[in-house]
Every structure is written in C-alpha cells, then in structure tokens.
Amino acid sequence: MSTSGCFIRPTIGTTSSSPFPNRSLNLKSFNLRACFIEYPLASKIIVRNLSYSTSESCLKEQFSNFGEIAEVKLIKDGNTKKSKGYAFVQYTNQEDAMSALETMDDKRLDGRVILVELAKPMKGRQLGYPKTSGPPPESTIPAQSESESEY
After folding, report:
1. Contact (CB, 8 A) for 59 and 107
2. Where is the region Disordered (predicted)?
3. Which end of the chain is more exposed for a tag (fewer CB within 10 A), N or C?
C-alpha cells in the first residue's frame, strides 16, 4: 500500500514487490515527451473510470511497476481544470504496456474499478482551420432515370 493517497487493491498470491525486480526506475524518463513517432503505437494505454481525485503522480507510481514510463497525461476539463476520469500512460516499449494492460485492467484504484485498454489514434482530428478541397468529386453511382422512379 502507498502512503501518497493512491491505493490499489492487492491481489491474492502476489507480493508487495515489483513484478519486474531487475528493472530500475529511471526518474529522467518522466521528463520525456512521448509521441507516436518516438515509441511504438502499442506502447500507449488509456486508463478509464478513474476517480476524480486520482493524480498523475499516483498513476506514475502504480504503472511504473511494469516498466519505464515516458509520459502520463491525466485529461482535465479546459475550463474547470478538473479531471475527466481518464488518462494516457505512454511506456518506452510495447511489452511493458501490454504487461500493465493485462495486470491493471479491472483492478481497484482509489476506490474505483479501472479499465485499461490500448490507446487508439484519433482519426480525422484536425488542428486549426479545415482545409478547403474544392468541389465534391463526381458520384460513381449511376443516376436514376425518370422511368425507374415512376414505379
């Protein structure tokens, strides 16, 4: 159990030590900015159903047990700056992310059962103004003739 206000339900048959005792925590890795170019796509997970009181430091503490973390991003409302109840955790490699996903999915964290999945890239997300593309392309569907529409 942690004393920093971040609690996770222990599972039966496990010890309190890290599941990866040969790995050391590199604190400099927390300062890295993660992106899909630097790390494999499958190394980023989304953690949903978080308590609104869960902090980024709590997530770092719990998820660093599975490997080196490049970034933790707790999503907050732009106006109120309160948590929206989900976060992204970016690992430096895919194996660590998969291990965290398998172990932490459906576990209790800060009094809530969290859901952990692979993060999927947002399709069609545009930054800035939409691009103009000119007139629409011609339809490849043949037009209906008047004689067919009379039935």
Report:
1. no
2. 125-151
3. C
Assign domain 28-122 to its CATH architecture: 2-Layer Sandwich (3.30)
Q: Minimal CA–CA distance to 109: which of 69, 68, 70, 62?
A: 62
Query: Is this prediction's pTM over 0.70?
Result: no
Maximum Cα–Cα distance across the chain:
79
Q: Which two tokens stand for residue 137?
A: 């392309």
- CA dist., res. 54 & res. 74, Å (int): 9
What is the token pair recorded at 106?
């459906």
Q: How far does CA 141 lie from the centroid of its chain?
A: 41
In the three-class reduction of DSSP (H, G, I as helix; E, B as strand; rest coil), residue 60 is classed as helix
Annotated domain spans of the chain: 28-122
Give the span between the Cα atoms of 32 and 26, in whole angstroms: 11
Listed in sequence order, the residues at least 6 apart from 64 whose beta carbon sits closer than 8 Å to its beta carbon are: 25
Of residues 114, 12, 15, 121, the one with CA closest to residue 63: 114
Cross-strand bridge partners of residue 72: 89
> pLDDT, tens digit, for every residue of 109-130?
999 999 999 998 776 655 555 5
